[in-house]
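Tutorial handout. Part one gives the primary structure; part two gives the three-dimensional structure as tokens.
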Amino acid sequence: MHPFLLVFLLLLAVLPRHSDATSVCSRHQACAAEVSSYPMADEAPPSVEGSGGEDFSGAFPLYDEFYSPAAPVFDFLSTPKVNSTELCSCSDDALCNFVDAERVMALDRSIRLAFCQPASSVSSATSTKAARR
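Part two.
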């Protein structure tokens, strides 16, 4: 599992899910996060033959960032388990949801963020701010 994904999942677990005192989102802050958990693929990665007589499993560990398995680890064709969390509320009373595609930013197949304004304006404003530094 990617380290950033692990940190993100831990933050989602720690943050309150249904708080009445939801803070107002800042301009560049995501108002909601959605994590899709896919089941593991049925087919295991191929084992790697190694030298030596030790009894190892033969497969590289999944957390090794230099290893890319030949077979997919997750079954992305199956229906995922989706967990959504509201992070803050929009200041203009706009609905924060994942329905409006222009307000959603997909980080990968399993993580999506929803914003109060179009995601393109958030990412372009952030890159402009970084260029000024």
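Part three, for discussion. The two ends are 32 Å apart (CA to CA). The mean pLDDT is 74.
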